[in-house]
Structures are given as structure tokens and as C-alpha cells.
Amino acid sequence: MTPDWSSLEQELEQWQDAGLTLPLWWRDDDAMSQSAELDRLTELSAELDLPVHLAVIPQGATPDLARFVASHPHLIPVVHGWAHQNHAPAGEKKAEFGTHRPLEELLDDAEHGLSALQELFGNSLRPMFVPPWNRISPEMLTWLAGAGYTAVSTFAPRTSAKPASGLLRVNTHLDPIDWKGGRGLLNPQKLIAQVTRQLRDRRLGETDNTEPFGLLTHHLVHDEAIWSFTAALAKHLLDGPGEAWIYDERMS
Fold first, then answer.
1. Which residue in 140, 151, 124 sits closest to 67, CA to CA?
2. With left for phi above 0 and alpha for psi between -120 and 50, is residue 166 left, alpha or beta?
3. What's the CATH superfamily of 6-241?
4. Residue 85 — very low, low, confident or very high, per pLDDT cuts 50/70/90?
5. Cα-Cα end-to-end distance for the chain
6. 22, β-bridge pairs
7. For residue 103, how far is the Cα from the chain centroid?
8. Interatomic CA distance for residues 199 and 214, integer angstroms
9. What is the rounded CA–CA span in Å between residue 176 and residue 29?
């Protein structure tokens, strides 16, 4: 069944009638090495002319990934925790950088992740911290800038653009994967309705429209439906008020 995009198209028309623009960014998580799935992600990024902020797991990152990224400027590496290891007790939501470990351990792992990827990617690495499972101890935010980071990214509309001095928060807002129901595509009509509501809230000033609207994907687990929906959504947004956004540490 072909999704009905009309509600989103009508919302995008209202944006354009009002002369509004939508800063749009793309974050894809869990990269470690070059793969066929990464090839496809890169091709779609180039086709859309929408760069991907590639959240790389430092402990597992390989030199072949660094070589691949170096030859594909649409891929922008950022730091995805350290080992993508869950430290939460049984029964609690997964987290690598939650409140379950001492702050010193959290910061040590964050620093190791940054230094490891700086060595691997050089100046192409952006010092953005992406905690696995999008969960981070609030106490840690105060110290991330001192660990060398200039941005942090999780999920859902931000409540503050600067959670700490020298640290910019840029979240993601839509994840098309049904993580609890087989890892396929969520109901596309519900996803379209979600984006439409989110954009309406931005247009009406109920949420922060200066925060780039973030698409969140995980290339290693995509099926055809997820690839197709992601491409179609990005095209709709870019054909409307969407303008590609890339993180620059000078923004912090």
C-alpha cells in the first residue's frame, strides 16, 4: 500500500507560504566498518544531497571505515559512546552512559572514544557525543565540554540549546524503525502523521524551530521498506522548506 503523504504536503505548503525554512539533518548510528549497507547509505545521501552524521562506535571502528569516509565527503563521523555496551541493571532501559556508573568512568570512556576516533578520522571527525540508546546522565553534560566535545545528540525535541557551557544540543526527532516489533518499518501513516505534528508545532512556535529537525536511521538493520520510506520522507522535506544542515563546532 502506497503511503498517503497529503497531510505532510499540506503542512509543508503552509511553511512555504509563511516563508519558513526547516534546517534538516541526518544521523545514522552504530557504524564500525565499511559494508554493503554503508554503501547504500552513502549512495542515498549523495542522491538526496543530504550529508549523514555517521555515529561511529569507537571501540569497534576499523581502518577501512576511515578510508571509506575519507573518500565520501557526505559522511561526517561523530562519536557514538565507547563500546555500545549496556551498563543498566536488568529490568531498566539500556544505557552505556546512564546514571549506573561513576561519573569519572563515564567521562573516561567519552574521552577514550573521542581520542580513538580523532586518531582514526583526523580533522574530519566532529566532536559531537552521541550516547548509545540516546540516554545520558544529566550530570555528565556539565563535563562533556571539558572532555573535548562541543555538541551532544540524543532523541526528542530539546528543551535547551545549550545544556552546559560550550555544549550545543542537537537532537534527532524521527526514527522509522519498530524496535519493539520486529525491527521493520513502523506504520508509515503514523510516521507521516508524527512528522506533520512535529512540523506544525514548530511552525506555531510550540517547539524550537532553530533546532535542526533530525532523521535517525540505523543502516545495518534496514529492510527495503525502511530504505524507501527514509528516501521518500527526506525528498518531501527537501522539496519543501527543508535545507540540509551540517554540524560545525564553531556553532557551539
1. 124
2. left
3. Glycoside hydrolase/deacetylase (3.20.20.370)
4. very high
5. 44
6. 242
7. 24
8. 12
9. 13
HSE-up (13 A, CA, CB side) for residue 203: 21
Q: Where are the alpha helices (DSSP H) in the chain?
A: 6-17, 36-48, 63-70, 103-121, 138-144, 188-203, 224-239
Confirm if 162 and 169 have CB atoms less than 8 A apart: yes
Exposed (0-12), middle (13-18) or buried (19+): which is 97, by Cβ within 10 Å? buried
Which helix H or strand E contains 61, and what residues bound it?
none
pLDDT digits (tens, 9 = 90+) for 222-237: 999 999 999 999 999 9
Are 95 and 132 spatial neighbours (Cβ–Cβ below 8 Å)? yes
Q: What CA–CA distances, in Å, run from 210 to 21, 23, 28, 59, 137? A: 10, 8, 21, 33, 24
